[in-house]
Amino acid sequence: MTDPRDLAARDMAERLAALEADNARLRRLLDEAGVPDSLRHGMRNTMAMMRTVIHRSAEQSADVETYVAHLDGRFGAVMRVQAATDAFGDADLHTLISDELMFHLVREGEQAALTGPRVRLRPKAALVLALALHELTSNAVEHGTLALPQGRVTAAWRVADAEPGPPVLTLDWAETGGSGVQAPARRGFGTDVLEDMLAYDLGAQTSLRYAPDGLRCTIRLPLTDRVGHSVAEDPETAWEGEAR
Hints:
alpha+beta, five-stranded mixed sheet, Heat Shock Protein 90
């Protein structure tokens, strides 16, 4: 009798092969269509991110059903970034966070509070950070504070000068209202994204702390030209965590 685990592994391998083939066909179509370099570069970033997500998700999924469910959510996060970018490919940090929360039916002004200055992120930085935000949000909804009626999350960010060097963006994610929150028994994809992928792609430093009432996560990353920049604005129009 065939071992069900062998069938699952074979099915997962076939899914991976099909996705890789789709990526290859898309690359050929872009070449044949003579797509502008700027758009082609953005598409390459997206496809590279998707390949990373495909392989890392497969490595850490216990079964095909879990793999497909998590992969679908992560692909959704990547595609939401594409919808949120402007004509130059930049994305607004507030929009990235609020869109991810809204996708999980967590509304700003109710279970979520967002506060911070206007920050514009370059395409690749937006992709990586959006994936990190997806992991934080989905974990809070599935296993953490936001699984409870009294659960709340606060996302607060600030930009500070750092001489010598570029300004530093600090994003604090704080969950409250949980009960008996504990660190996971094993390292998962979300931790890899937050601690490894952000560091490798953006030069970020991430700290995670599992407080009894919810997760605390602080992300610090330099706002270099390839990452993004803050936008000067009238203080009266700054984001104040109000529901839009």
